[in-house]
Sequence to fold (250 residues):
Amino acid sequence: MELRQNRVKRKLQRGERVYVAAGFTHADDIDAFGPAGFDGIWIEGEHGAMAFDELGNLTRACDLWGMTSIVRVNRNDQTLIYRVLDRGAQGIVVPHVNTREEAENVVAGGRFAPLGQRGMFTSRQGYGVADYFAKANDEVLLTVLIEDIVAVENLDDILSVDQIDVFFVAPSDLGASMGYIGDLQHADVQQTIDRALEKIISSGRVAGTMTTSENVGKFAASGVQMLLVNSTGWLHDGAKTFVARANGAV
Fold:
């Protein structure tokens, strides 16, 4: 058996964009979305009701379609990080990474020695793979969330940490930390997001952010490589369009 390649990580390493969708809570929904051709699925473990016993099926559904399973955990805890990886996730997202030391902790939990100190346990991804521990670090995607104004202020230090694959600017929490709850379009928030993304890209690191169908072109053109979209927005837009067309029929 060969270790399954991480589609998102490979494309990012080639300088390509990746498309990741969020909002799926059941393996059958991931299966149904599989033919859309996205690169990865963002599995939400910080908010909502996802439990560890669900992770195996969620990540397996991603595997069936060659999509990278990327799980957001709810805290920067090494044992939590590698337990999620042990359940078959190919990628981890860690919230509220505000300092270089916190970014280093993500690496410690997400990489096997000599790069980190991830517990020596064979993930489901490693079943039947004789050289799993030698290759696993190459196939794990580590993402940190830049979602507090203090993280933006410390961004140079955070960007100095090796082995982080994506530096993801999260708009909602960032705006809230600046005092603009529910006002993401405020000029100060938008300028801060743009400056943070520009700094990440100009430093030679990979930037990611949350997008919509309306603004994805802007971020893609600016050099953002990880483009996340919430599928719930598509569902709502489709439903509204459906009703509007029905009500407008003669």
